């Protein structure tokens, strides 16, 4: 297993390079790069500075000799290219980026003038808080609910609970977030929870227990909104997985030998039924931690990695784009490896090293 783990870790290197290369080519080919963004800002500011209002008659007067009318100095564009590194060929920039990323040096943001790693570390606690609690909530409710639905398949409980989780799945997370804000945070109906932020302004002055309550108070609505869409998938996956295992021959044999239902369920069925659920854990974690929380972060004014990556794409802030992409890919690959190792922990009969050999 140690050799298998080492081999998987080594395979992550070409995978990371391939993902970065594909996205590097796509981003370079996309119009409206950072230099275009800077020139657009420059022209807007220049047009504003060259325009004035005639207070007497209300007429707008535009200066003919403004910098915008004469065009932009090519030397200014050359300085921008040097500043952003576009004076070098694309392959040299990509190789340099790989060398820096090997030491987790993601460079400096084009428009924030701060190291990308500092921006990511600053936003990471928000994404971790939102993703961690949403994941724990989903798994803590969906797995027991799915098991109970499998044991009571076809009953009223099964039918009614299926209807509830499917309705929850049909509601988009951002729409549910808006509904929660309107009902419980806007003051139109109830004013029980805060509208924005991860903590209160006086958080540092609170006691230890006060900090816990304040943190939970702020996280309740965002976590519920982030988790609502994941209940149905995991609940039905758990139910179907357990139903499939319950009707297999080894379960009938165990019952024929006198094993009670609890021993059959948790001693035999649980280990096999949980394999397919564990397989989906990495994708669920990445989705909840990063991509799925973007609109939730916007609605509740939470400065997380999802919002940071979205703003970087809109501004063509390449260091932030590739830095967050590198982090997402690396975390996803590591979680996939953890998932495979968890397979072996749940069912020792699985041996990936032998299968690969």
Map the helices and strands.
Blueprint lengths: L1 H28 L4 H16 L1 E3 L6 E3 L4 H4 L3 H11 L5 H12 L14 H36 L4 H15 L2 H12 L23 H20 L3 H16 L2 H8 L4 H19 L1 H9 L4 H6 L5 H11 L2 H29 L5 H5 L1
Antiparallel strand pairs: 1-2
Walk me through the structure.
- This protein has 357 residues and is an all-alpha fold.
- 72% of the residues lie in helices and 2% in strands.
- The protein has 17 helices and two strands.
- It has helices at residues 2-29, 34-49, 67-70, 74-84, 90-101, 116-151, 156-170, 173-184, 208-227, 231-246, 249-256, 261-279, 281-289, 294-299, 305-315, 318-346, 352-356; strands at 51-53, 60-62.
- It has a two-stranded antiparallel ribbon.
- α6 packs across α9 and α6 (116-151) crosses α13 (281-289).
- The model is unreliable at 50-70 (pLDDT under 50).
